[in-house]
Amino acid sequence: MNVMITDSARWQLRLTIRDLLRKKDSEASQLAQRLRGILTNPILLQDSLQPLEGMAELPHHEIVLGSYHLYFREMEGTVWLTALWPPMYPE
């Protein structure tokens, strides 16, 4: 299984990590480690993908890492990371 990242998701990921690093928060390294583990382990990725809550008919899947939501779509044997949503409100 191939894993690719769309340009918009790559941009969102970079901004998220940059903002976390500015805060000098360990959350950035934790998010990066967990994401790296999921993206490099096809079995873990496949096991982690969940249909969107209340919208199972959509072709996207979601993985929640802490307070971050990652959205994926599988097309022709490739899993695409299509979006990364940081939390809307600080905890």
Short description:
The chain is an alpha+beta fold and 91 residues long.
List keywords for this structure.
5 strands, globular, alpha+beta, YaeB-like fold, 42% helix, five-stranded mixed sheet, 91 residues
Secondary structure blueprint with pairings:
Layout lengths: L1 E4 L1 H16 L3 H15 L1 H7 L1 E2 L8 E6 L2 E8 L2 E8 L6
Parallel strand pairs: 1-5
Antiparallel strand pairs: 2-3, 3-4, 4-5
Helix pairs in contact: 1-2, 2-3
| Overall pLDDT confidence | 83
CATH topology: YaeB-like fold
Enumerate the spans where pLDDT stays under 50 for 5 or more consecutive residues: none
Q: What's the CATH architecture? A: 2-Layer Sandwich
> What is the distance, rounded to the nearest whole angstrom, between the alpha carbons of the first and last residues?
35 Å
CATH class term: Alpha Beta
Count of β-strands: 5
Sequence of strands across the biggest β-sheet: 1-5-4-3-2
Shape type: globular
Counted by DSSP, the helix tally is 3
User: Which structural class should the secondary elements be placed in?
Assistant: alpha+beta
Order of helices and strands: EHHHEEEE
Assign the CATH superfamily: RelE-like
**Strand percentage:** 25-35%
Q: How many independent structural domains?
A: 1
Query: What can be said about the biggest beta sheet?
Result: 5 strands, mixed
Q: In which range does the helix fraction lie?
A: 40-55%
Using only C-alpha atoms, the radius of gyration works out to 13 Å
